[in-house]
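Long-time lurker. I teach an intro course on protein structure, and each term I like to show students one example going from raw sequence to a predicted 3D structure in token notation. This year I'd like something fresh instead of my usual example. Would anyone be willing to generate the tokens for the chain below so I can use it in lecture? Attribution to the forum is fine with me.
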Amino acid sequence: MSDAPFLRYRLLGPTGLRVSEICLGTMSFGDHWGFGADEETSHRVLDAYAEAGGNFLDTANKYHGGQTEEIVGKWLPERRDSMVVATKYTLSMDHTDPNASGNHRKNLARSVEASLERLGTDYIDLLWVHAWDDFTPFEETMRGLEDVVRSGKVLYIGVSDTPAWVVSASQMLAELRGWAAYAGIQIEYSLIERTPERDLLPMAEHFGLSVVGWAPLGAGVLTGKYTRGSGDVDSLRKESNEQRGRTSDEKLAIAQAVDEVADDLGVTSAQVATAWVLAQGYGCIPIVGARKVAQIEDTLGAAKVDLSEAHLAKLDEVSRPSLGFPHDFLRSSGVRNLVRGEEVRGRIDGRRARR
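-- Reply from a regular --
Happy to contribute to a lecture. Here you go:
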């Protein structure tokens, strides 16, 4: 990798905050879960990311029982002001305590305090709600988030792994009450997981939210791990049972198309898969992780990959999801004629309303 920084920056949602076009995920930092990089290696990965111009770090209180935040916190001194540090709360930190999880005010308050201590900072740039908690009314969550923003302990808020209707209702409540609103959503998004295009992405576009996509490499499937080399695919599939069907024949066909585009461009499959997410719009920011410096250097190279219209069309064709009802129904020509009337005769200019 060149020593000169090359990552560009995008505005986070409807805010003025500048974040790197590729976000560094840190879930692989630590070893309390029995896997991951040690502190020294994690810091070298962080160094490589920063040297490329990266400033957007994504962590969570739950990762390795808090060890990940501590590793990031030990690296932050002298760099704190230039880094956008995002962390999360929701997931249980103590399974013997029913209030040590969820999106209610008590868990929010103590999670923020604990994260600040582990990160060694007095403010969090971006606090994500880690996942939807259907026990806690979204009204309570939004009011609690407003309070931590007003306190100065949190600057911006976002929401991860939550249904579109919950995010929409939360945004409207925040707007009506004059509270802090979400700046982005964090979702799984890749060439083998495009179902967010049904509701989550259109919702994010409507509200101007950034879409920060985790697992852009499909948990390794889009790196060529299962489609290149001489490995036994059947054993690899068995080994990857936890990957929720990511190694089905359909998903492997998508991975093979990624390999073909990569070979055509002379780059790696991981770079093509990450570049595809980047190409889905200004608001789409992939989260990439690494246990080794070589891995982060490779994936960051996606920022230099220019996918042609032909490449994008090829990848779209092999991976395009069925949107299902009501989307496919409403897009049918007969229904569009009924709903839009004279537009089919070219007399209505509906460009403003189209997505």
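Some talking points for your students: Residues 322-355 form one domain. The chain is about 40% helix and 15% strand.
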